[in-house]
Amino acid sequence: MNKDSVIFVAQNDDLIGAAIAMELKNKEFINILTYNKDELDLTDASAVFSFFEKNKPEYVFCFAGPHGGITMNTQYPADLIYTNLQVQCNLIHSAYKHGVKKFLFMASSCVYPKECPQPIAEDYYMTGKMEPTSIAYSTARVAGIEMCLAYNRQHKTKFIPSIMTNYFGPGDDFSDDGHVLASVLRKMSQAKERGDASLTLWGSGKPKRQFMFTHDIAKAAILIMQKYNENELINIAGGKEFSIAELANELKEITGYQGEILFDTSKPDGAMRKLLDNNKLKLLGFAETVDFHEGLSILHKDFILSQK
Ligand code: GDP
Asked: Shortest CA distance to 213 belongs to which of 280, 300, 138?
């Protein structure tokens, strides 16, 4: 990837896409194509094909299509599987038809089996049943991974499938549809404002999640694009792992909320743990740059700004 290569960040108005576009700019890449959802509808096959024909992207970063936390996964499984399959088919097939040099497909850790040795190495992909709360979404992402590998086998493309850990960062979804970290940050800030004596979170508080800052995810994605050439999955992972109860304590510190944390066990826990192994990524020379607490305070400031 040269500084003047034509690079398309599919869905740059998303958290991860925005971080990748910003990181590419910081690294002085000058031909970055970024379109928001209104400018380019990735579910529209002919619009996507025409876009590739006209702009001839050489490199594509793809974390496109709708996604969200446990509520979104349980309430909108049909929308998630239908739209993600559409978007992925359009992007992957267009990339093949228009001779894209390298395509990075980014899936999420829910594609790994629900019961899996930890940390999860790439070899554990497809070795067991997936977590039921996110199975519609993760099935779409598995299809994306398999499309990349199939196109590589049949058409000799360089479509790299990757699997990301949980992430957080500026522009996060603080609503109930978002992932736990941003969603609880908002709930806790509001509980503090109201002076609530307690805050109830979902599930048992025991599941563990690893949290990586989006700018580091973006750095890892760019490094993979530049240096990784295997026809095999690679994990994008790092950051810190906490149980949801421990995470709540971290968030109490940053928000200043002093009430009691309760857990509603009628709500699903989802996967109990999904700690990804990042040895392959480290072998490429990856090292994180944003410490968890630094990331948390950036996110907290972003939340405060989003309220103004
Ligand atoms: P997941 O990583 O795909 O399971 O999705 P989430 O980030 O949405 O949820 C992670 C865990 O946090 C699950 O065990 C949830 O039940 C738990 N959790 C607790 N409170 C909340 C909340 O307010 N929002 C979300 N999204 N998750 C919560």
From this structure: 300
Contact 87, 65 (CB under 8 A): yes
CA distance 32 to 25: 8
Q: Is the CB of 184 under 6 A from ligand 1?
A: yes
| Candidate from 80, 179, 255 with most ligand 1 atoms within 8 A of CB, to mutate | 179
DSSP of 38-57: TT--TT-HHHHHHHHHHH--
Single-letter residue type at 72: M
Which of these, 161, 159, 42, lies nearest to 103 by C-alpha position? 159
137 a catalytic residue: yes
Residue type at position 124: Y
Predicted structure pTM score: 0.96
Strand order in the sheet with 31-34: 31-34, 6-10, 59-62, 102-108, 159-164, 234-236
Each residue of 136-167: pLDDT tens digit? Answer: 999 999 999 999 999 999 999 999 999 999 99
Kindly give the interhelix angle for 77-97 and 45-55, rounded to the nearest 10 degrees.
30
Answer positive or negative: Cα dihedral of 270, 271, 275, 276: negative
> What distance in Å separates the CA atoms of residue 32 and residue 21, rounded to the nearest whole number?
7
Going by C-alpha positions, the residue among 238, 163, 241 that lies closest to residue 208 is: 241
Task: Give 10-residue mean pLDDT values along the chain (308 residues).
Answer: 96 91 97 89 97 97 95 96 98 98 98 96 97 97 98 98 97 94 97 97 97 97 97 95 97 96 96 96 97 96 92
Q: Which two tokens stand for residue 307?
A: 């309220």
The Cα 23–Cα 11 span in angstroms is 15
Q: Which residues pair with 113 in a beta bridge?
A: 130
